[in-house]
Specification:
This protein is mostly helical. The chain has helices spanning about 15-25, 25-30, 35-40, 45-70, 75-85, 85-120, 130-140, 145-160, 165-190, 195-205, 215-225, 235-240, 250-275, 285-300, 305-340, 345-370, 380-405, 410-415, 430-450; strands spanning about 375, 380. The chain binds phenylalanine.
Length: about 450
């Protein structure tokens, strides 16, 4: 039994890695990375992406680890604790707000994944190529069905997060992440065994230097940032449950390796199957909800049971990836409400989940059920995506890097990095160099690139 003033933490090192990797591994790994790699130079892109993870992703993740673990508190309070200033504290609040706003629309798409698990289960996912398009269009713009699945996925998240860090998030991650990985590997093997699969493998991995330009580099930077769940409070909040013995730099490296591996494997799952049936893969929601069900049906349809099982496994995998990310997003605001409003975890989770569900309902409605929910020609869904992803995210990431690099008490940063001198901290100076100069510059580039200014 935990005393009131005793704060929860992860029980094991494996739990830390799997839960944080669970936050990082999400829809972005499946619907964005593979396509970017295929389109932008294959193996060369993968190398560039890894470089971005090294230069930007890992240092930014360590920043958040340091802030979170130093305070052992929710993200807003963590920024206040380390900085002891109101100004910097605002970044913490912004981070929590970003995480909260994203929860609503991330949950909508997570609900879609669940609906497709159901659709695969009851055998709705087969027909002519056009069928998938109209199926998705009518489902996503329906006023009731997506809401039903949104509520179900939020309920699942609630049931996990309300149980706390060890019994909820850690336990679920230890079950979900290995399952996700096994499903992924099975589909990769099946996909690579299809006739003509090598063309897809080649598309993904063949190095092509001529495709590389500054555009590709900037997109890779942006993707590394998003894929590692940086600047949304998730990493910082989870780090507040780490132990004093957790090696922050090593953990960041391990999590990044898992995240990148899943992204590459996702490519090896998608492209061989798509090329074997001569379908051109795309990215985003249309890839996973329109193109791929058709590809899997065509590729494996000859053996009816296999087609059925593969599609079920694929949406199961996607749901797990989305759910583990959703858990981390809900945890950001839950920790905030619990600690700032001094209420029980159960009540905090309930407040967060229900208010995020309401946001999700409006986002979902804005996709067709009610056209009135569009502003400046963008649906509410797109506006949330834009404001959080393109504005809040880089701003929080930039200010956090600048703060840690230039303003944070050097001793605190060093102590956290080296676990109070018990680790050698070989790369401390390199890390500091990246955080001071490279990360802020990279983030400014990402920001300007998004708005087409460079
Ligand atoms: N990293 C997740 C992905 O790749 C997205 C995400 C960002 C999830 C931030 C949670 C928090 O899809």
């Amino acid at each position: 039994m935990m005393l009131d003033n005793e704060r929860a933490n992860f029980a094991t090192k494996l739990g830390i890695i799997l839960a944080t990797a669970g936050s990082a591994v999400g829809l972005g790994n499946v619907w964005r990375f593979p396509y970017m790699a295929g389109q932008n130079g294959g193996a060369v892109f993968i190398v560039i992406y890894m470089l971005c993870v090294l230069l930007l992703g890992i240092p930014c993740m360590i920043n958040e680890f340091i802030i979170g673990r130093h305070a052992f508190a929710n993200t807003a309070r963590a920024y206040r604790t380390i900085s002891k200033s109101r100004g910097w504290m605002l970044i913490g609040y912004m981070s929590v707000l970003t995480g909260f706003l994203i929860t609503g629309y991330y949950a909508v798409v997570s609900g879609w994944c669940l609906q497709y698990v159901w659709a695969s289960l009851v055998g709705h996912l087969h027909g002519e190529p056009d069928y998938y398009k109209s199926y998705f269009a009518s489902f996503s713009s329906d006023p009731v069905k997506p809401i039903f699945w949104l509520v179900i996925i939020m309920l699942m998240t609630y049931l996990i997060v309300k149980n706390g860090i060890r019994d909820g998030i850690e336990r679920a991650s230890k079950l979900f992440m290995p399952t996700l990985f096994i499903l992924l590997v099975i589909i990769v093997v099946a996909s690579c065994m299809l006739p003509g699969a090598h063309a897809g493998i080649e598309f993904l991995l063949k190095p092509n230097w001529s495709m590389i330009n500054s555009d590709v580099f900037l997109s890779a930077l942006g993707q590394s940032f998003y894929s590692l769940s940086i600047a949304m409070g998730c990493i910082c909040t989870y780090a507040s449950y780490f132990s004093k013995h957790t090696n922050l730099a090593n953990s960041a490296i391990q999590i990044s390796v898992i995240d990148s591996m899943v992204a590459i494997l996702a490519g090896l799952m998608i492209f061989p199957a798509a090329f074997s049936v001569g379908v051109n893969p795309d990215s985003g929601p249309s890839l996973i909800f329109i193109t791929l069900p058709n590809v899997f049906q065509q590729a494996f349809g000859e053996w009816p049971v296999v087609g059925y099982v593969i599609s079920l496994m694929f949406y199961g995998l996607l749901t797990l990836a989305a759910l583990t990310s959703l858990m981390s997003l809900v945890e950001v605001s839950t920790a905030f409400c619990q600690e700032e409003m001094k209420i029980t975890r159960k009540a905090a989770t309930l407040i967060v989940v229900s208010s995020a569900t309401i946001i999700g309902v409006f986002c979902s409605f804005s996709l067709g059920a009610y056209d009135g929910l569009a502003f400046f020609g963008l649906s509410l869904f797109e506006i949330f995506d834009f404001v959080t992803g393109q504005i809040f995210l880089p701003v929080v990431g930039f200010l956090t890097s600048v703060y840690i690099g230039w303003f944070a008490p050097h001793k605190v940063v060093r102590d956290e990095f080296t676990n109070w001198g018990t680790l050698r901290g070989t790369y401390f100076h390199l890390y500091l160099l990246l955080v001071k100069y490279i990360c802020p510059i990279c983030i400014i580039f990402i920001f300007l690139h998004q708005f087409g200014l460079i």
